[in-house]
Amino acid sequence: MPTQRLSMRRIRDVLRLRHQQGLTERVIARTLGVSNGVVHGYLRRARLAGLSWPLPEGLDDEALELLLFPTPSSTQTDQRPVPDWAHVEKELRRRGVTRVLLWEEYRAAHPDGFGYTWFCTTYEAWKGRVRPTMRQTHRGGEKVFVDFAGDTIDIFDPLTGEAHAMKLFVAAMGASNYTYAEACPSETLPDWISVHANLFAFLGGVPKFVTCDNLKAAVTNPDRYDPGLNRTYAEMAAHYGTAILAARPRRPKDKAKVEVAVQIAQRWILARLRNHRFFALAELNRAIRSLVVELNARQMRGFGSSRAELFAEIDRPRLGALPDAPYVFARWKRCRVAPDYHVEVDGHWYSVPYRLIKDLVDVRLAGATVEIFHKGQRVASHARAPNRRGHTTIADHMPSAHRRHGQWTPRGLIAAGERIGPSVAAFFEAVITERPHPEQGFRTCLGILSLARSYGDTRVEAACRRGILIKARSVASIRSILKNGLDRAVLDETPDHEPLRHGNIRGQGYFH
Questions:
Q1: Do residues 229 and 218 touch, judged by C-beta distance below 8 A?
Q2: In sequence order, what E strands does 390-487 have?
Q3: Fewest CB within 10 angstroms: 100, 143, 351, 401, which?
């Protein structure tokens, strides 16, 4: 590894001690705490540059450096072509392109070009000049940065011994570096919301902003300029009175605070717990909480105080108040209302007002409740059904005709037939009984009731009596009887003489 170059101030000391004080190279090296070879090298460079002591008036450090360390433009390498670093930067953003590949292509085009080490070093220097890092200023209570650590920690099933990897959620306050960590089973939306609620409870307040990464549970559309937030995440933020700021995609410096906190958590927490065996998530989080308290109480070098002290002084007084109750997890889903004015949620169908057929609605699932919103207004609310492939329908959501139809039962239809006449009731009972499912006969019965409005109860009663005799079972048959006047033959039937009465004649009463 090459020796690090001395500062221009110390190189001036080497020249002064040699030419003004007349000290030997060995004494100069011992005085400045460097090796003899270093002193000899700088004096040799000064001789080649024609420098002695005192240095020429007005020679600043930059000019002195150019004299002692001339740029490649004055050497033989001047003729070697320099890569187009802007093109290299653009190509490296493409999938699968590496620096080695670009350097090999560069050397294939220029066999006498620079080596790979020079290629990488010069590219890094160019990138540092064109893409400088902006130092961020964090105000007290303003921002908390959140992310998941890359490493995991296992908990073991006490019965089977199977290991389950737990994710480590890490958060850091911007101004004080106050750190929070918690293990959770996954990076899914329910766990993501749960750790945020626990974070705010740990802080005892709510920061103005939450800066997060572009994980799927938080950001639905990772756009650089207009990111789309998960609706549940946005609702949680509104509940706590904070705002979500999504970091730009592939820009970890936007959340540098939590990147450093993740590294510290992996070393301070995960590394210390690597030889422990945990059999429950609560047990693991108790151990993590203890180490987090120790981490926040530890003095930070360069600050002269701990994270906990800085948090109490800078962040805590400026945090927003916690709401009266923690956020209850709710999942949102967008649905289109089906022609039967129901929406499907987890395999079950819930009704909405029929006027919304074919409209888009938002469904909110929270605990045991299903709420349906249209253009921000709640239009329906149902108790969440435990079964799948079923329907939950509110009568007020149905059209009036459907509502009347939905109120019919086999017993109710037969009773309606009896109000017209016994033959109508008998006809209804025969129709309902002979169908594989009673509901399949409802339309026939309703059709007969509608005929009564056109032909009157007496004629329909007579038509049904004739229909029973000829074993008719359809509305069309009864309508045909009425249309052709065949019901009148039943009405006109009057006996011309008294029936014979004899012990061997059973009579019509026998069949009743």
A1: yes
A2: 391-392
A3: 401
SS3 369: strand
Q: Is 38 exposed, middle or buried (0-12, 13-18, 19+ CB in 10 A)?
A: buried
Please tell me whether residue 47 adopts helix, strand or coil conformation.
helix
The DSSP bridge partners found for residue 427 are none
Distances (CA, A) of 183 to 113, 154, 166, 412, 458: 51, 10, 6, 60, 79
Contacts of 238 by beta carbon, 8 Å cutoff, 6+ apart: none
Average pLDDT over residues 103-122: 89
Question: pLDDT tens digits, residue range 260-309?
Answer: 899 999 988 999 998 899 999 999 999 999 999 999 999 887 677 899 99
Instruction: Report DSSP state, residue 327.
Output: P
| 72 Cβ contact partners less than 8 Å away, ≥ 6 residues apart | 78
Q: Which tokens belong to 484?
A: 């052709």
Contact 200, 226 (CB under 8 A): no
Contact 234, 224 (CB under 8 A): no
Continuous H helices in 252-391? 256-265, 281-297, 307-310
The pair of three-digit structure tokens given for residue 62, joined into one six-digit string: 């930059």
Lowest mean pLDDT among 160-164, 384-388, 468-472: 384-388
Region label for 22, one of left (φ > 0), alpha (ψ between -120 and 50) or beta (otherwise):
left
What pLDDT sits at residue 67? 83
pLDDT above 80: residue 235: yes
Tokens of 9: 């101030």
Q: How many CB atoms lie within 10 A of CB 165?
A: 12
Using only C-alpha atoms, what is the Rg of the chain?
44
CA distances from 97 to 91, 116, 120 (A): 7, 15, 14
Cα–Cα distance for residue pair 68/380, rounded to 1 Å: 81
